[in-house]
Amino acid sequence: MKKLLVYGIFLLFVGIQSGQSQTVTGKWKTFDDETGAAKSIVEIYEKNDKIYGRVLEILEKGKEDKICEKCKGAKKDKPIKGLVIIEGLTKDGDTWEDGTILDPKNGKEYKCHITLESANKLKVRGYIGVSLLGRTQYWTRVDK
Fold first, then answer.
1. DSSP symbol at 73
2. Rounded to 5°, angle at Cα 60 from 58 and 61
3. At 89, which CATH number?
4. Domain span at 107
5. Residue 7 and residue 4: Cα distance in Å, rounded?
6. How do the pLDDT tens digits run along the chain, 144 residues long?
7. Among 57, 65, 88, 110, which residue is least crowded by beta carbons within 10 Å?
8. Are the beta carbons of 82 and 54 closer than 8 angstroms?
């Protein structure tokens, strides 16, 4: 009986740990599409049952203080560091969708959906109109 109790507690602990790691929230490293170099750290967070993402850190040397010159509206000429680039994604099964992602490089907003490929790999798809017309990036989780 004692072994069964210990085994049950162990399974509960493992279940809680794996459940916590199976979330899109957290810090993610982004990569340049052309060079593959690490580009930034984005924090994805949940607010009012929706997902948002903000740039926490710019990893590219010499671009740490860059502003979003090509952005429109309230984001125009704001520092990229601290900028909210993912907005309003809602959960649909294993995917978060129906929101937008901003590309600070060109100032354009795209429809977006994200999917957790594994505990440490996030698939981020930005597109125009339908998902076929867009690009996909894979971000990696940053250790806490």
1. G
2. 115
3. 2.40.128.520
4. 24-141
5. 5
6. 555 444 444 444 444 444 445 899 999 999 998 999 999 999 999 999 999 999 999 999 999 999 999 999 999 999 999 999 999 999 999 999 999 999 999 999 999 999 999 999 999 999 998 788 899 999 999 986
7. 65
8. yes
